[in-house]
Amino acid sequence: MPWWALALRLSGLGWYIAICIVGGVGTGIFLDRWIGSGFVFLLVGVLTGTTLAVFGVYRMVLPLMGESQIPEQGSAARAGKSERNKDQM
């Protein structure tokens, strides 16, 4: 993957984190004002937004982490299959 594509993907992670947390805070403030509660929904919104951000970042970074390991595992798996095929012949 070119360096600029990786940079765009990582900057997208920052935007994703910001949108999740700001969305949770905004929704919490809206619900608190609408229902008339103190700051209960604000705390729930912050926790929900943070949880979604962490889970989403994990899901987005997971392919990047496995990208360096895939060729090594793929070649080893192919080598094992070819040896098994030779034994069966």
Characterization of the model:
- The two termini are 39 Å apart.
- This protein has one domain (8-88).
- It has 89 residues and is mainly alpha-helical.
- The chain has helices at 3-35, 40-67, 70-88.
Distance between the termini: 39 Å
What is the C-alpha radius of gyration, as a whole number of Å?
22 Å
Give average pLDDT, whole number: 80
N-to-C SSE string, H for helix and E for strand? HHH
Whole-number count of domains: 1
Helix content: over 70%
Gross geometry: elongated
Structural class computed from helices and strand pairing: mainly alpha
Q: Low-confidence spans: pLDDT under 50, at least 5 residues?
A: none
Question: What attributes characterize this protein structure?
Answer:
single chain; 89 residues; mainly alpha; 90% helix; elongated
